[in-house]
Amino acid sequence: MHVDGFRDGGAAAVTAYAREQGLPAADNDCCADRMGEDLTAVASVKLDRPEYLGATHELFGNTDVRDCVGEAVREHLGTWSEEQPTQAAQVIDRTPRNIHQA
Q1: Domains in the chain with CATH codes
Q2: 9 contacts: CB under 8 Å, gap ≥ 6
Q3: pLDDT digits (tens), the chain, 102 positions
């Protein structure tokens, strides 16, 4: 759920920033599956009652974590994009090429 939230939030932030800036990626919604490539993140979520899936309990099952992490990533990546426009443009510039090559 953490990874899905990261991808969702990252794709939403990049797409929104590209549209706001009128960049070429604004015409294409960013693909969430490609958004996480080449990126590393640490997401720490504390829950009163964590749910685990699978026989070995390796998968985190709380679906509300996806929305929580996605919103946090979208908000903070959006702020970073506004504060670092050169780097944000580089991220956005790479995203459409990756999508079209898929």
Answers
A1: 2-101 (3.30.230.10)
A2: 69, 70, 71, 72, 73, 74, 75, 77
A3: 777 888 888 888 888 888 888 876 555 555 545 555 666 778 788 888 888 877 777 777 778 888 888 999 999 999 999 999 998 888 777 664 444 343
